[in-house]
Design brief:
The complex is a heterotrimer. Chain A is α+β, with helices and mostly antiparallel strands. Chain A has six helices and eight strands, in the order ααααααββββββββ. Chain A folds into three domains: about 35 residues; about 45 residues; about 80 residues, Sandwich (Immunoglobulin-like), CATH 2.60.40. Helices cover about 40% and strands about 25% of the residues of chain A. In chain A, strands 2, 3, 5, 6, 7 and 8 form a six-stranded antiparallel beta sheet that branches. Chain A has a two-stranded antiparallel sheet with strand order 1-4. In chain A, a hairpin with a 2-residue loop joins strand 7 and strand 8. The longest helix of chain A has 27 residues. The two termini of chain A are about 50 Å apart. Chain B folds into two domains: about 100 residues, Rna Polymerase Sigma Factor, Chain: A, CATH 1.10.1740; about 80 residues, Arc Repressor Mutant, subunit A (Orthogonal Bundle), CATH 1.10.10.10. Chain C contains eleven helices and two strands. A two-stranded parallel ribbon of chain C has the order 1-2. In chain C, helix 5 runs parallel beside helix 7 and helix 7 crosses helix 8. Chain C starts with a helix and ends with a helix. About 5% of the residues of chain C have low confidence. The chains are: A alpha+beta, B mainly alpha, C mainly alpha. Chains B and C meet through helix 4 and helix 8 of B and helix 5, helix 7 and helix 11 of C.
């Protein structure tokens, strides 16, 4: 097929498809106007303000912008000063710290030790993204209530949880971090490369 | 019928709450928007739905539109984003029946040969991946420049050219294959 | 005596050979059989997507057999199972997205005995997130194949690109599931930075990928991604 033929055919086809929608197109503007008119009384003060703002002359808008920017500069100046006064120090930085996790990397060659203290438990297992969430049993050979297993894992980030007698336990103290999942918690551990082989 | 003819005046009047002025904008853009939606979605009920939503959303967000910029690019971007969301929604909610095959329904004036060709293009477009179909629609139905298409789809201009080129190549190939099947 | 030793050797060999056969690798035929046992209407579409995943190296037969057999054994409506699989299949084939994270979440949900409806909802949200994050990388000129190769574009190999998309989307999903506001772009950005830094410290991803993301992706675009996903889910 010639290059121009295809382009013409595409144009004609789409135009034909639109013309088949004549019944829909015919009353569209009336329908939209009716719908918007019906809604008008419900418009809030914020929308009215933004509309007024949009209708303003360009010079007025500039004036308003200058006032706004000045206000923002003073606000930041206030924050800057308050951060340096002992009374206010930490007020803003505490918010940041709350969401920054302090984590230690785990990279002992892919061997990962899972430990779960569960005195009196019948079965303890670990489930996670490394075993398709199918239980790998932990053992307590010396019967001191500390259950252990050592898994060999390839480098990656793994989410997991312990299952103690059928109950999920998603907050392992040895984890690097925790995430919420399906309304519960998962522990997370990172397994790194021991060498520089990336 | 609204009497003001100039687009900027109509938009200013719409911003001022004159819904009738917006009605005039709808009447000027309705074919372009519906064509875009038909081309993007390949499903007439969805295309009608999204065309309607585009005009409502655009009106509600008119205060965000900068008068010095081209209005068509702005409203096409809204339509394009709504189409993209609808496609994703359709893919993830398979209870809804698959897109309805476009019926022929051509007027008697169209010859059989033309009808065949157009039916092939319709099928071909429906099978074409969205990334090719969208820029092809904007280019050949909405007559937009590569630059405008790139802005609407938020992709680099070079990518748009590549996608249009590959999309057409694929369409040619599909049409060729259909012809072979029909003649076999 | 020699004959006896020879006989013992033959017996040993005969015992070893069938053992090796029974431990043959899982193939797409096994996957198809598992899928057929679910008796789904859209089995052909799902299988075709899975095959695409195998070809792209985005899926392995083992993980699919595990997923399908777990789903088959799980109590719940067949329709829910079908929609779950279709969501993954369409993310993979129509949207060309990495789906490891989705499969992992389904497996976790099944292990936790979560109702299929809840899993469906979560998978749908996460699939949208993957698509939005992938598009975000495209918009910031980070691509994965030569198809998009522009002069100022950065083209990453598929596994590296997929890994970045998955990790960023997973971070955003975790953020969202923890109930925090999608409007706090700076906090979302911090979460992403922490996750990428941890992966870099453990040499799981190259430092250059982390620098690239932190340099090109802005906090406000992350807010935009989460808002888009929320609006899609509310449709």
């Amino acid at each position: 097929m010639h290059k121009d033929d295809l382009e013409k055919l595409l144009r004609d086809t789409l135009q034909q498809e639109v013309s088949e929608e004549r019944h829909y197109l015919d009353g569209l503007e009336k329908k939209i106007v009716a719908e918007l008119t019906g809604r008008l009384p419900r418009r809030g003060w914020l929308q009215t303000l933004t509309r007024l703002f949009a209708q303003m002359q360009r010079s007025h808008r500039r004036q308003l912008a200058v006032i706004g920017i000045t206000a923002v500069i003073f606000l930041f100046l206030g924050i800057f000063v308050s951060e340096r006064l002992p009374l206010f120090r930490g007020l803003f930085s505490a918010y940041d710290k709350q969401h920054t996790t302090t984590i230690t990397a785990n990279s002992d060659g892919g061997q990962l030790l899972f430990v779960m203290p569960a005195p009196g438990a019948q079965t303890v297992a670990v489930v996670g993204s490394f075993n398709d969430w199918k239980p790998t049993l932990l053992t307590d050979e010396d019967e001191d209530g500390i259950w252990l297993t050592n898994l060999s894992l390839t480098p990656g980030r793994y989410e997991y949880a312990f299952v103690v007698d059928g109950r999920w336990w998603g907050q392992d103290p040895l984890a690097d971090e925790y995430v919420r999942s399906f309304g519960g918690y998962n522990s997370v551990r990172y397994v790194g490369y021991t060498g520089d082989n990336i | 019928m609204y009497h003001v003819q100039d687009e900027v005046s109509l938009l200013r009047a719409s911003l001022g709450g004159e819904v009738e002025a917006w009605g005039e904008i709808v009447s000027r853009y309705k074919e372009a928007i519906l064509g875009l939606c038909v081309g993007f979605l390949r499903n007439h009920p969805d295309a009608e739905d999204i065309s309607h939503d585009t005009f409502i959303r655009a009106y509600e967000n008119l205060h965000r539109y900068h008068m010095e910029k081209r209005f068509s690019t702005w409203i096409f971007t809204i339509a394009s984003n709504l189409c993209r969301n609808r496609l994703r929604y359709r893919r993830r909610h398979p209870i809804v029946p698959p897109p309805v095959q476009m019926e022929g329904g051509c007027s008697p004036a169209i010859t059989i040969a033309q009808e065949d060709r157009q039916a092939q293009i319709r099928q071909g477009l429906s099978r074409l991946p969205y990334r090719y179909r969208a820029p092809i629609t904007l280019r050949y139905y909405n007559d937009l420049s590569y630059h405008q298409i790139a802005r609407i789809l938020s992709l680099p201009e070079g990518t748009i050219k590549t996608h249009i080129h590959r999309g057409k190549a694929r369409l040619r190939q599909e049409i060729g294959e259909m012809e072979v099947v029909n003649h076999a | 005596m020699k004959e006896l030793a020879f006989l013992a050797l033959v017996v040993c060999l005969l015992m070893v050979v069938p053992t090796q056969n029974t431990r043959a690798e899982t193939t797409s035929i096994d996957v198809e059989q598992e899928l057929q046992s679910l008796g789904l209407q859209s089995a052909a579409e799902i299988m075709s997507a899975i095959e695409t995943g195998f070809l792209q190296g985005r899926l392995t037969p083992d993980e699919m057999v595990s997923l399908l057999s777990n789903l088959a054994a799980y109590s719940g409506e067949k329709e829910d199972k079908e929609i779950l699989l279709l969501t993954i299949a369409r993310a993979l084939k129509d949207d060309s997205l990495p789906v490891t994270m989705l499969i992992d979440k389904v497996e976790e949900g099944l292990a936790r005995k979560v109702p299929l409806q809840t899993i469906r909802q979560m998978i749908s949200e996460r699939a949208s997130l993957l698509a939005e994050v992938r598009d975000l990388l495209y918009m910031n000129l980070i691509f994965t194949s030569s198809e998009y190769g522009q002069e100022n574009c950065l083209v990453l190999p598929l596994p590296r690109f997929d890994f970045l998309v998955t990790q960023i989307a997973d971070t955003l999903a975790d953020y969202q599931e923890s109930g925090r506001s999608p409007l706090e772009g700076y906090l979302i950005y911090q979460e992403m930075r922490t996750r990428l830094s941890m992966l870099q410290q453990n040499a799981i991803i190259p430092a250059e990928d982390v620098e690239l993301i932190l340099e090109r992706i802005k906090p406000e675009s992350l807010t935009h991604v989460l808002s888009n996903v929320l609006s899609q889910q509310q449709q």
